[in-house]
Amino acid sequence: MTIWKTVREPVEAKIVIRRSHFIAWMAPLSEKELAMSVIGDRSKDFADATHNCWAWIHGLQREDSHYSDDGEPSGTAGKPMYNALMSAGLTNVAAVVTRYFGGAKLGVRGLIDAYTESVEAALAEAKLIKVIPMQNLSVDCEYAEAQQLQGLLPKLGGAIGDVTYDARVRFEISVPEASLTELCDFLDSKVHSNGLNYTIED
Fold it and tell me: By Cβ atoms counted within 10 A, which residue in 82, 87, 89, 140 is the most buried?
């Protein structure tokens, strides 16, 4: 399976083309359901702009994507932005390019180039990271196993989410799919001797 990339954190870049100001912004997108909320919030910040065009891509196979010209001529903004993100090998990313019209029309080719260059300018500033397939698990264990698990997870590239401390400890964790077998071997070794329970989430 191809490993795509995303931006590590939100990034912004500005360019000026024939007096029109373009502000390109992109951010990591953890869930596709958040795409329009993220884009909407960014667009509200620049509600006085002439256009807030956008594109987003999500999924380990880049199976979900949408884009919008936001009033620019059809095919001159959102699609070029999408193409720039695809060409860069990105997924799980949302991008918005804000335009303040400078008085000079750019024409179809000029707009396509401008929106492409805007995304590329933001990419030049971005720090990219790999999008690694992760598996979520719920683990219920004794405190001794909790300490061992906390020590093991970073070595496997995993992370701890919610933790509940009671008579026992309950973890919500995620681990790269490539490390799942090693983690399950550790958990299985504790199941019978210490009453540890775990569930791999769908």
Answer: 82
The CATH number given to whatever domain includes residue 190 is: 3.30.70.600
Instruction: Assess whether 33 and 64 both reside in one domain.
Output: yes
Give 58-61's long-range contacts (Cβ < 8 A, gap of 24+). Answer: 58/29, 58/31, 58/32, 58/91, 58/92, 58/93, 59/32, 59/91, 59/92, 60/1, 60/4, 60/91, 60/131, 60/133
pLDDT in tens, 50-78: 999 999 999 988 999 999 999 999 999 99
CA distances from 137 to 29, 89, 143, 166, 199 (A): 21, 29, 17, 19, 6
Q: How many residues does the chain have?
A: 202
- Residues 156 and 120 placed together within one structural domain of the fold: no
Name the β-bridge partners of 6.
129
